[in-house]
Structure formats: structure tokens, C-alpha cells
Amino acid sequence: MNHASCFIKSRGRRRLVNAHALLFSTLLLFGPVLNLSAFAQRRPQRSNVQTLTNEQRVMHVLTRLTFGPRPGDLERVAAMGVNTYIAQQLDPDAINDNALAQRLGKLPTLALATPALAEQYNPPKPPPAPSPTPTPAPSPSPASAATVEQMQPPAASASMPAPASAQGNSKSGAMKQVTDGMKPADTQAAKPPSAKPTPTPKNPQQVVTELQRAALLRAVYSERQLYELTVDFWENHFSIYAQKDADRWLLTSFDRDAIRPYAFGRFRDLLGATAHSPAMLFYLDNWQSSVLRKYPATKDKPARQTGGINENYARELMELHTLGVDGGYTQRDVQEVARCFTGWTIRKPNEEGLFVFNPAAHDNGEKVVLGQRIPAGGGIADGERVLDILAHHPSTAHFIATKLARRFIGDDPPASVVKRAAAVFLKTDGSIRETLRAILIAPEFFAPTTYRAKTRTPFEYAAAALRALNAETNADRPLLDWIARMGQPVFGRITPDGYPDRAAQWLSTGALLTRINFADALATNRINGTGINLTNLLQGADPNDPQTLIARLAHIALADDLAPQTRAPLDKFMRAGQQTAPLTTNQASVSKSDLNITRVSADAAPTKPTGPPAYVNQLIALIIGAPEFQKR
Asked: Dihedral of the CA atoms 16, 588, 466, 591 (nearest 10)?
């Protein structure tokens, strides 16, 4: 089929067929890559190449240490040198990030303490209004009183839409338990009237949305790219589902106080911060874990028992956070660790949301964890001792080194680099920075087989596209919803295993088609709150010269690394577009102050050209949707 058929006549002039034409063109151009096995294996052709070129080394560092290069990054990093850039990114405190801080300043919930968030976004139920009639009603019986209480309307709440794709299952037996009870927070008992007015309820979803927006803004605009990638790694490693009741307002502190300060520090400190985090204690139900106490029958009361130990956190602490599923622990260890963490709880999750240790709920008996004796009477120190044991265990070093190497090198990282990184982890008392350094300077990191060997997750793909096109975005719901539709709602993984970091999770045909649709919407400025300025993006390139135009865009997005099987159909597409009388639109110019963008109607009255030909938008979409750009 001639690609010029994508352009049709309408009312005496030619116009561009929009999203459907792009999708159809993309299927024609890149249809073979929708064969999933071919897509997963497709890389730039480097027959018999033993080392990466200098340009490829720069691009490799930029795609692995950042969410994707921006225009000008290739030249900047090439000038300073790859090793200097790695060292710079490993020292984020020395990097000025004030421009990002100004963007984050527009998200007020990020700076609020948990009690303030709970008070403003989970206000107590107001007292019932006084009866309009003075006639007293008969006193209800206990049964009828309970019925009246149950009929009170629940507190205002909002929840994130269900994830757009199946999340998968974990090997952990506790995961089903973790997802139980994910309903809006229980209504608190009505308080008697007071002089202080009840605050106007705010939507709890605003807290989650602003945290999601902050994650995307940091990925797109932060100069501390390796740090933000590492924060993203740890928040996925210690994954928490944002929509589980009180976690809607507890998660902000988890990000701000438990993850970000320790992302490059000692693993033991990071592990301890997450263990004390009310968000984690609530998500994995440890806040309700208490020693079982039995009371014999008395003259007035029957025998009864209170409390009960919950093993969710203990199991995930060892399986997902430290040792790994094959790390050498037993079910007996799970039980003993759970005993150690009894009493680690939260003071009023729906009102204050602060960590507290409750000695009355703690099992003070002797425990044995991984063969190490923990004496009786330790109190809160029992849990701290467990964290010490786990953080310094060789299985933890291997598990963390493997996950970091998988993130930064490949889905199946070489055993040699994992072994060296694990040794550095143990030698440096769990220094995350030095473990990362060992991976990033390893010869295996720059092996040709690692180049473009990782598939971008939907979040990474969206951030990379925004950075490559120098987009302006407020990262609000329209863009976040696109990422969710591509299969990765931000902070939306229901199970505690986090999103997978392997290509197979993201390479279904439906997921790839959704990515193509996203690329089209982004390139044609049809995502409200997000836009690209083509005039600035293509500065210095002739939009009417196909070779120059493709070269400019391929250099920005792919460092000129466009495979022949991708380049040939793009050339055909450009020639087909030039054979028409292309419509120019004001989509090329986007104001930073006005990101409420709408698409220009093709049937509108002709206007004076203000930017590149309209087919350029589709060319951009095709390059962003190309197989090479899906990888990093």
C-alpha cells in the first residue's frame, strides 16, 4: 500500500488523517516487531563488534543512568567524558536541582506532615444534625441502635482506578492476605459538637495524585537522574499500594522520609526506615500484630483471648526486602521474625499516622532467627536485631546486587558482576552508592551485549519520550492515566513484589499498541497539560528535507542509532508526506504557561503557517514508537 494514501482530499484541500492513520501507518512500518520474541531480541546491528563506540558508550550511559537523554545531553556528556559523568551522578548532593524544586513547590501535600494530611484529607465524620422536630423519639433498643449506626453514610473517600493490566502473582503466600480489606477507611465514631467547626473534606486522592505527579516530574526534569532512578528502584523494591485505606496519606511520608534520604546510603539505614514507616506497617498489616494473650474463665466472664500475630511483614521482609525467596530462611524463621516485630504499630492511622512501639503488645519471649538467639525481654530491640541480621546476611548482599545489576545491566546480569557487587556490599557495610559504583564501572556494564538490551517500562518510556522531545508537562491526570493504560499505574502495584524488571512483562501486543497510541497523542499535542514545541525542537533542521529531518530526530531520540529496517520505512513515510500539500498548524508552538492544549481541527479555516508541516508530528510519533526507542 502506498503511504500517500494516509493523506486524503477534503473540501478542496488536503488534510492529515489523525490518530487512526498514524496507528495504521505504524502497523505497516513496524508490524514485524509486534512479533514479541523478535521485538525482545532486536538490537542495533553490530556484527563482530567487540566494544562499543564512543558515541554508543555515551548513549548507553545516558539511557542507563537517566530516564533518557534530552536534546544536547549527548554532546554535553561526550565533552565531559563518561567516567566524569558517572562520578557526578553518584554525588547528587553536589548537583543543583533548584528548577525541579520550583515545579514541586506547586504540589502542597508533599511538604505536609502525616497528621496534617490525615486531618485535612480524612476529616472526622461530622456530628449528626439536630432533629428539626422537638418531639422526642422513644429510646431505641440495643439492636435498633446498632442498625441506626450502620446506616450512617461512610466518610468521603476516593480510590484510584483498577490497574490497567493484570499485575501478576508472587511466590509469597501472604500476598492474598495483603490485598484483603482494601476498602475505604472505616468511618470514625461521631464526636460531640464543639466550638471548632468541622473542616471541609478534601479528596484523599489529591494526596496520591500529587505524589504520582512528583515522581514523574522528578523523572523528567531532575538533574539528579541516577538518584531519581535509584529512588524509583527502591520504591519498587519496597513496594506499597497507594490505595489501601490509610496508605493514601501515609505514603507521602514513606517517599519523603523513609526512601529518599537513604537511597544512596547504607542499606541497613534504608531497611530500618522502611520497617518503622507507618505506610509499610499498615500495608503489610504489622500494625495489628500482637502477642496472643489468653484469659481463663472467671465467675463473671468466659475464657477469652486477645491479639494475634500477623506474619505478612515478616515474610515479605525476608522474601522481598532482604534474603530473597531462595535466601535460606524457613517458615519457622518467619514465625520468629513476626514475634520480634509484635508491638511495632501506628498511633491512630486515620488521625495521626505515626510510628509507636507498644510494649504491651510485644512478645518478650526468647526467639531464634536464622540460627541466632535473641534473648527474652528485648522489647523493641528484638526487631532492630532482626534488621541487623538480615542487612548483613550474604544472601541479602547477593539478592540486592542481583536486582541492581538487573536494573542497570540486563534482565539476566552476568554472575561475575553480581559476585563483585555483592562483595562490595558486604565490604562497605551495605553502601548502596559503592555497590552501584561497582556495577556502573564494571566491564560487563559496557559490553556490546548490554547495549539497548533492556525494555523500558511504561513509566520509563513516558519519561524518556518527554525528555527526548523537551516537553513541557504538569504531569497531571491525563498523562498519569496514559501510563496506567500502558500497564504501570504509579504506586499502583497491588501486591508487594513490585513491578517486574524483565522485558516479558511489557511486551504484549496490546501493550505495544497502547504505546504507539501514546506516542501519537504526545507528538500531536493531544495530552492536556503536556506539549512539545516543534519549532524549538527542530531548530537548525529543514522540515522539508526528509533526510535532514529524520537525521535530526533520530539524533535527539536515538543518537543516530536507527537500524536500517527502521530507517527505510521512515524514508518512505516522509516521501509520501511530501507528495501532499501538508497542512501546517499552530501545534508547533506550546506555551509553558498554558498547557491546557487542544488539537486544532483540520476543517478550520486555513491559517498562516506557524510551524513545520503537520506530517512532522507523525514522523516524531513513529520515531518515539520505533523498536529502538522502546529499549534502553
From this structure: -140
